[in-house]
Description:
Blueprint: H1 14-18, H2 23-29, H3 37-50, H4 54-63, H5 70-73, H6 76-81, H7 117-128, H8 135-152, E1 169-173, E2 183-186, H9 187-192, H10 203-211, H11 216-222, H12 227-242, E3 251-252, H13 262-288
Parallel strand pairs: 1-3
Antiparallel strand pairs: 1-2
Helix pairs in contact: 3-8, 3-10, 3-13, 7-8, 8-13
Amino acid sequence: MKILCTLRPIFSTKSVATGVLIPLFFLVVATRAAAWGPVGHETVAYIAEDNLSAAAKQKLKAILPAGEDLPSIANWADQVRATSRPETAPWHFIDLPIRKDITKAEETTFCRDNNCVLNALQIYEGVLGDESKSNGKRLEALKFVVHFMGDLHQPLHCADDSDRGGNDKLVRFKDAGKRGHGARTKLHALWDHLIETKTQEDPRELATDLEKGITKEDMASWSRGDEGDWAMESYQIAKIKIYPGMDPGPQDYTDNPLPSSYYGQMRPIVDQQLEKAGIRLAFVLNEILK
């Protein structure tokens, strides 16, 4: 596997490093939803933590404050995006157009102003692995890496249909067995919270359950490639599984609720993306913190 921090830079680092954005663009992206919600990000972190090497665990112990672990920092990037660090909003996603057949080599074209999840991961993986950096800088980098690896595996954070990654498509979702007409929600928000549709799931318990189904072959397969490959994987899921039957651009589908089978069809995809994100986060951290 090629970890982004070890590659020749494929993006300019200026925009992410300095937080300089074009104001109009910032207004467009600032309302992006947080991938997976708190439960999803913590689940990814638990899976990663369970698969860390002894060396990585030891080095993380020196970076993390007392009493903190990967799950406890997993949602920090969303918290600061909404408060003190609004300039980080574009770092959570990359808009790969589903109406085109793009390749991995074209991903840089869609990292607007060099502000996207792939560029952010490259930069902060580099900071995390640089032992000359202060502990504070490496801790901040760790927080971003843990979160952005989760974002990378939410399909609508790597795909766009001229709808801001599903934020401009309204759907109506009714979970099977529930009364009423179902909730009116954004397609993106629905995917962020498919984990929590039926109950408020416990991330530790969910991670443990998901890990029971992960084989050694899965771990080896999922650890191949790099972050660009994994973004393309999420993009293809959105293109093939989520968007078919929908028209491009902003749409209101609330008069035609999603079928009652939607949850059953899509939840396995969500679960596997969480599994992949956790295993890949562990692999990245193990490589960086040898």
